[in-house]
Amino acid sequence: MHSPLRSNRLTFLSLVLYCFIIINNVTTTTTTTTLTFHEAYSPLFSKFNIHPSPDDKTVRLLLNRFSGSGIISSDYYNYGFFSASIKMPSQHAAGIVVAFYTSNVDTFEKNHDELDIEFLGNIKGKPWRFQTNMYGNGSVSRGREERYRMWFDPTTHSHRYSILWTPTNIIFYVDNIPIREVVRTAGMRGDYPSKPMSVYATIWDASSWATDGGKEKVNYKYEPFVTEFKDLVLEGCIVDPTDQILSSNCTDNIAELMAKDYSNITSEGRKSMKWFREKYMYYSYCYDNIRYPVPPPECVIVPSERNLFKNSGRLRSKMKFHGSHHRRGRANRRRRNKNKGVSDV
């Protein structure tokens, strides 16, 4: 029999550990300079659905039955650190994708690079999920995606998501917690992103695949769907992507970037990453032996992770969710069951 007391205790302990991790990581993260919307970005598509705040520090992107919307950084960057605090749409969000990513597809159409954080909406009452991915030199047939759940409700408050991209490593962060690192190896060759990229933020209708394999579509009864971006950070060497030889000025910028605290994961950061990946990752291409009988060269097989996954790269057992969605769901069930005279066990 499932014990509510034990479940609540596990949830409490998980939150205490999370707070401890956040405190330790915040104290070691380099201070960054935030930009206003118009300092950092320009409209990409559907300007009528892009709404900057009066002080220009926040921008809201809308999806409605007419269109989604998107913005693009005003410059290209040769490596960098890119970050934003993002709040997801509430209500019924099935079929919706919110993306924060880097790409150069508009300049290098057939051999583009890309680093993705994609947030996948869900039906009302079920949690948002998100995934990270990497493409280099047009390697779209060799997607390197990982998928995760969250330990918080991303629709109630903004949370910070960041992408670090240097010549030697890539790190994805959530609220200063490193959740994934890709270290460049010789075996990756052109699969490692190395050409200048822009930074994008978008919201769009992905009804064909985003929720339950496309079974759940966007329900425009709940429009508009609004995602909010603020605390915008774009740090890197600004370049012209068409230059055959990049400016030597980038040498100093890249060295400065790689010297920042966020470019290297501390021992405490490693513990944080281990906590996140073993608790909230539910798919990893590195453990998908059906798709990749030989793991791609950058994969580091971690035994404690490997034991959690099937050969399909998916979890052996159903993930237990202990975040804010879980607590809210239990509270709602208790109220309903109390009215029906049913015990919540």
TrEMBL record:
<dbReference type="InterPro" id="IPR044791">
    <property type="entry name" value="Beta-glucanase/XTH"/>
</dbReference>
<keyword id="KW-0378">Hydrolase</keyword>
<keyword id="KW-0134">Cell wall</keyword>
<keyword id="KW-0961">Cell wall biogenesis/degradation</keyword>
<comment type="function">
    <text>Catalyzes xyloglucan endohydrolysis (XEH) and/or endotransglycosylation (XET). Cleaves and religates xyloglucan polymers, an essential constituent of the primary cell wall, and thereby participates in cell wall construction of growing tissues.</text>
</comment>
<comment type="similarity">
    <text>Belongs to the glycosyl hydrolase 16 family.</text>
</comment>
<dbReference type="Pfam" id="PF06955">
    <property type="entry name" value="XET_C"/>
</dbReference>
<protein>
    <recommendedName>
        <fullName>Xyloglucan endotransglucosylase/hydrolase</fullName>
        <ecNumber>2.4.1.207</ecNumber>
    </recommendedName>
</protein>
<dbReference type="GO" id="GO:0048046">
    <property type="term" value="C:apoplast"/>
</dbReference>
<keyword id="KW-0326">Glycosidase</keyword>
<feature type="active site" description="Proton donor">
    <location>
        <position position="118"/>
    </location>
</feature>
<dbReference type="GO" id="GO:0042546">
    <property type="term" value="P:cell wall biogenesis"/>
</dbReference>
<feature type="region of interest" description="Disordered">
    <location>
        <begin position="320"/>
        <end position="345"/>
    </location>
</feature>
<dbReference type="GO" id="GO:0016762">
    <property type="term" value="F:xyloglucan:xyloglucosyl transferase activity"/>
</dbReference>
<dbReference type="GO" id="GO:0004553">
    <property type="term" value="F:hydrolase activity, hydrolyzing O-glycosyl compounds"/>
</dbReference>
<dbReference type="InterPro" id="IPR010713">
    <property type="entry name" value="XET_C"/>
</dbReference>
<keyword id="KW-0052">Apoplast</keyword>
<dbReference type="GO" id="GO:0010411">
    <property type="term" value="P:xyloglucan metabolic process"/>
</dbReference>
<feature type="compositionally biased region" description="Basic residues">
    <location>
        <begin position="320"/>
        <end position="339"/>
    </location>
</feature>
<feature type="active site" description="Nucleophile">
    <location>
        <position position="114"/>
    </location>
</feature>
<keyword id="KW-0808">Transferase</keyword>
<feature type="domain" description="GH16">
    <location>
        <begin position="35"/>
        <end position="229"/>
    </location>
</feature>
<dbReference type="GO" id="GO:0071555">
    <property type="term" value="P:cell wall organization"/>
</dbReference>
<dbReference type="InterPro" id="IPR016455">
    <property type="entry name" value="XTH"/>
</dbReference>
<dbReference type="InterPro" id="IPR000757">
    <property type="entry name" value="Beta-glucanase-like"/>
</dbReference>
<dbReference type="InterPro" id="IPR013320">
    <property type="entry name" value="ConA-like_dom_sf"/>
</dbReference>
<dbReference type="Pfam" id="PF00722">
    <property type="entry name" value="Glyco_hydro_16"/>
</dbReference>
<keyword id="KW-0964">Secreted</keyword>
<keyword id="KW-1015">Disulfide bond</keyword>
